[in-house]
Amino acid sequence: MKTSGASSDLWPSLGIIGAGILWGLFWLPVRALGDLGLEGAWPGIVMYAGAALFLSPVLVVSWKTIRPIWKPLALSGLFTGAAFACYATSLLFTEVIRTILLFYLTPVWGTLLGIIFLGEKFTLSRAIALVSGLGGLLVVIGLGTEFPWPRNLGDWLALIAGMFWALGTMLLYRMGTVATLAQSLSFVCGALVVTGGALLLGGDIFGATPSPAQLVGAIPFGLLAALYVIPMLILTVWPATRLSPARVGILLMSEVVVGVGSAALLSGEPFGLREVIGTCLIAGAGIIEVLGQRSK
What we know:
globular; EamA_dom; transmembrane helix; membrane; DMT family transporter; transmembrane
């Protein structure tokens, strides 16, 4: 049974903000694996396989509790894993900033799903938070000079990732009582299945097949990257079982501040006054969301 007090939402809210910070730096291991010769979706395959390997004991230890609910668990893992797979792959097909911003149309999808399926009300505080967050995205992307419409495969993958994430977090929220580690395992397994399927069906569209030597050389770094991925997923999944999809999407916007800033510092992507204003609006959306809910 979920608790409903404002105080019960504080730690999950802080957790999802922390997850956003880790997600904001996630492009670094992805592109590092790309520099080792793994193109497109292949860095994801190595990381997901490593994370699944580290989390596999959970399946053995918790099988009795997982078995009765394996179908909804697998379904939520498929959607959140698909979001993870599309997001990670998009980082090698477009700029970091475009991946992050197009993904963060998520609060729109989350709010719609919450109203339709969870019976949530569209409150004034949530409306202000959405306007602030999406306004910040428009400012960063170039309001008045460029509309944030997908222009390449990476952009489309980022947009689709946001849709899948909203669906996946709604399923996580409705499940609620499932152990976080079990859900994290379903998360990476779903990402592994979706990425593997995309490579089988799409072929070189999602990256040329690496040589055996390239794969072997990437395994050690892939395992290290998996150790980064696991706490990131735990901090993402646990709050998602306790907060609504719209709130998860809004609070995860902390990723935008970290992702845009780190990309500007480390990869030379633009970060000027427009980006500062935009990220402040996005951060403000998270603050408004938390204060608006706690005031009830």
